[in-house]
Amino acid sequence: MAEISSCLYVPALEELIALEAAIAAKCKSCSDSRAVEELVAVSAASGADCRPCLEYHSQQALEIGVARDDVQMAIATAFAPEGREFR
Fold it and tell me: Could you give the number of structural domains in the chain?
């Protein structure tokens, strides 16, 4: 049986955890974990080029009070070069 560290999903999970931390640190309007979760979903949808998902999660984020600038930051974070911090 393969150890969990060799599982293909572990790097993806680590990337999502890092993305969540980066978004939480930069989000000026995130009042709770739901806002951060929506922004992670926005960023993931943007990176996956899933327009319906991007529109849905962007709207959800705006409806719970996330600022438009923070939604745009989450979209841009999906395209930040690896190893380079997004500003």
Answer: 1
In Å, what is the CA distance from 51 to each residue of 6, 43, 54, 70?
32, 11, 5, 18
Query: pLDDT digits over 12-48, tens only?
Result: 778 888 888 888 888 888 888 999 999 999 998 998 8
Q: Tell me if 22 is assigned to some domain.
A: no
CB of 24 within 8 A of CB of 32? no
Residue 54 lies in a domain: yes
39 Cβ contact list (under 8 Å, min separation 6):
23, 27, 30, 61, 66, 70, 71, 73, 74
Residue 17 lies in a domain: no
Predicted structure pTM score: 0.76
In a domain, 85, yes or no: no
Enter the tokens of residue 22: 């980066």
